[in-house]
Amino acid sequence: MYTKTILESTINKTTGESEFHQALEEVLLSLSPILDHNPRYQKAGILEMLVAPERIIQFRIPWQDDAGFVQVNTGYRVQYNSALGPYKGGIRFHPSVNQSILKFLGFEQTLKNALTGQPIGGGKGGADFDPKGKTDSEVMRFCQSLMTELYKYIGADEDVPAGDIGVGAREVGYMYGQYKRITGLVEGVFTGKGLSYGGSVGRTQATGYGLLYLLDEMLTHAKDGLDGKKAIISGSGNVAIYAAEKTAQLGGKVIAMSDSGGVIHDAEGICLDTIKEIKLINRGRISDYLEHRPHASYTEGRGIWQIPCDIALPCATQNELNAADAKALVASGCKAVAEGANMPCTKEAVHVLQANQVLYAPGKAANAGGVAVSALEMSQNSQRISWPFEEVDARLKSIMVNIFIQMSQTAEEYGIKGDYVAGANIAGFMRVAEAMLAHGVV
After folding, report:
1. Which site among 13, 156, 394, 410 is 20 to 30 Å from 359 CA-CA?
2. Does some domain include residue 408?
3. How many domains does the chain divide into?
């Protein structure tokens, strides 16, 4: 088969890039029904071009810590595909960052951005820097050093980064400030900016809120709803926090959340104000929750998926939910899983969920709310205007509902009704592929 040949060839050329291979396999195998019998795409080499990023930039980042010692990290920007518009995707600061992870994220971002219907391509970047335990001055020096190199490759009409794991409002502010200092340009080169210098209201909440808008639509389509449902959410960053907030607004109850240290379980319902204070204000550990709510329980490790629930929302990182976890969710009666993180479910876990008729929304569709509002921020920056929260939120909800409709209708059109993984992959690919065809061999 055409797609299998391309997949095997790509894996042979990129040994050691397991995350990238995993993402490619999931997407390419679901595309085989339309690609193996479509000579138009084969002759134009669309798949061969799509599996290769347009460019990868790698650079060193020297910076000085508070003790006066020079530290050196490695930075990357994967400019994956610009068929639909400027490269768009976050910057991640985490010790695990490497080229394979960023290639997989850039590939996923390309299809995710296509699903939003916005004119943006796909990209991703980051560095193997850990902001945990660093002072504000150390983080600032690191961000300034990174931007002293990265500024050459980004711009409002070229490549527009945003935040990601380890990169919040503080880091975006430092990077944008250095970009402006070097270039003299005041433009929408970053999204997720502070409201005082061009950010959009609703961007902080967007990924978490968008996740719940799509989940709610998926449940409604299945003649169900969120009202009275018990939810567990991995992670406790912006995505998880605002997913929990919107879950409560839509009638559900979050009973467990986590961080890299362990899991907090509160059968009475997680107190979100306490989580916000711990994580957003104090930058503490989720175990601190017990000081405020002593009736809750805390368990070290990653056992959140063993807690019985109706809804599971993995919002932490890639491959955090494996086949054994999926089986535990099925056994507890879980009705739906929607991904707030990028590729948090392993391939085996997805198979378990789908085989047991658990509603499953893949990340490239379910967590597209963040980049959707980022595109809206770009539009506001271009027009030098600012929309109210109600307008941004209404646009976000409309985009997420349309994403669900796209993946649902596409799956049905290709005879795989209810397979939202394949539906999202095919719908995203078709939009990118048509643009690539129009551009010719570039």
Report:
1. 394
2. no
3. 3
